[in-house]
Amino acid sequence: MSRLQDRIHHLKSHVRGASLGLAAGAALIAGIGAATPALAQDNTITAVMHSGLRVLDPIITTAHITRNHGYMVYDVLVAVDENFAPQPQMADWTISDDNLTYTFTLRDGLKFHDGAPVTAADAVASLQRWGKRDSGGQLIFDVTESLEATDDKTIVWKLKSAFPALLDTVGKQSAVPPFIMPERVASGSADEAITDYTGSGPFVFVADEYQPGVSVTYRKFEDYVPRDGAASWMAGGKNVKVDEVKWVTMPDAQTAINALMSGEIDYIEQVQIDLLPLLEASEDITVETRDDLGYQTIGRMNFKHPPFDNVKIRQAAQMALSQEAVLATLIGNPDYYKVCGAIFGCGTPLGDESGSDTLTSGGDIEGAKKLLEEAGYDGTPIVLMQPTDVVSLTAQPVVAAQAMREAGFNVDMQAMDWQTLVTRRASQAKPAEGGWNIFFTNWMVPEINSPLISPMLNGRGDAAWFGWPEDEKIEELRAAFITADTPEKQKEVAVDIQKHTLDNVLYVPLGQYVMPQARTNKLTGMIPSPVPVFWNIEKAD
């Protein structure tokens, strides 16, 4: 057995033991039994999602569970279909001959859940709030001359210079979609969470049944008017064919699988790979993956506080890490993961692996030790946040902590549930005062496959994604990508961004993987979208 294989075996045992103990405790705390019905109700879909839901504002966070919640409750002006092509959703559009003016016209019948009509003023306020938070939105508003509602149904967006990817950016399916909210809600601060959850989408959030982190209920919005046409990813007709959808939290993977097989629940968003055989043997369960590209798992450091405000120390941490060790511990079965050093994802047009040699070849502990010594690291504790309740996030912190300790870092790994981490990562406090130094998360490849949409390639300091790097060079490169007028020129810029990102450690790409989902065969019509959605699904008796 090689040294790397020995490390992986040890790490798997560590993660499995920690996960079982922590999950068992979390199950008791969360009151799983109280949250789950004896049997899933007729015409109600009961689902176990990858995480409990605590953050309800889908604009202030990139957390996938909150994005999933956003698609239940809100609609969007433009949506991408299964071919990654932007399609009209709430609005149609025209573009002026000089490509500087986009005119959107809302379709008939749009209503909010309180019965009020959706107006252009609502859309403008929603777009403006989104533009203050989203990486791609910030780029569009950099070149925006004006955005206004000229009447109740018409939005006119005028640019100072062309932005060819405007529709793709406004229509992107994740991180972060510009969900349409009432003007009274969207006109509030982009830095403070909303408290009014009146939506524009196909489901109503049932506030009086919401138990943060435990369960959430969505009821069919009877007055929602679907767009004509077949559903295709986020586009087309969002026809709701059930009365309710309930998300319940089950931190223990075995408990969730038992519940699915016994009919207590209908759906599991993420299935732990080593438990797949239990489900694959059942004739009543379908196990499938939603997309081929899957996810990229990553590490993100805090640039505001020592020691990761020092680029050499960031480089040392990156040098210590091994994608194979992370992926083998996280997933186990190599059929479901891929070592890949491309920040834009392998298998994508912009994918390039320049500068990722240590990550993809098993890490370099000795090189990391030497670089850490050269950087003058003084033993400052590294606060590493460790989520314990999400199948796809339990391994990365354990693997990283061991590698960094071997390289000479003083690692303080602090356990918490994922929603606590999602809240804490927004804090800019010093690590010793409730802040943090490093955490790990996952992105769908389609939400990081371009510098225009990847949240981690934002170098605008406090206006950037959590970690807050100030990096003029990455902003210059993103601007160059916007003006590149051929795919070849875009790829050249993308390679420069790849090199700059890894050299400056804007984040650490740790490889790609797919995570299967499982559903009862009573559910039919589920759209094979990277984002799990609950319209179009029928449930048999």
Could you please describe the fold and organization of this structure?
The chain is an alpha+beta fold and 541 residues long. 32% of the residues lie in helices and 18% in strands. It contains 17 helices and 21 strands. The strands form six sheets. A seven-stranded mixed β-sheet has the order 8-9-10-1-11-19-12. The chain has a four-stranded antiparallel β-sheet with strand order 4-5-7-6. α1 (3-30) crosses α11, α10 packs antiparallel against α13 (365-375) and α16 (472-483) packs antiparallel against α17. It holds the Pfam family SBP_bac_5. Residues 87-446 form the Solute-binding protein family domain. InterPro entries: Peptide/Ni-bd, SBP_5, SBP_5_CS, SBP_5_dom. This is ABC transporter substrate-binding protein. It comes from Nitratireductor aquimarinus.
Give a short overview.
The protein has 541 residues and is α+β, with helices and mostly antiparallel strands. It has helices at residues 3-30, 32-35, 64-73, 120-133, 135-142, 166-170, 183-186, 253-262, 276-280, 311-320, 323-330, 357-360, 365-375, 395-407, 418-424, 472-483, 487-504, and strands at 44-48, 78-80, 86-88, 91-95, 101-106, 144-151, 154-159, 203-205, 215-220, 244-248, 267-268, 285-288, 295-301, 337-338, 382-387, 411-416, 438-444, 508-513, 517-520, 523-524, 538-539. The chain is built from 17 helices and 21 strands.
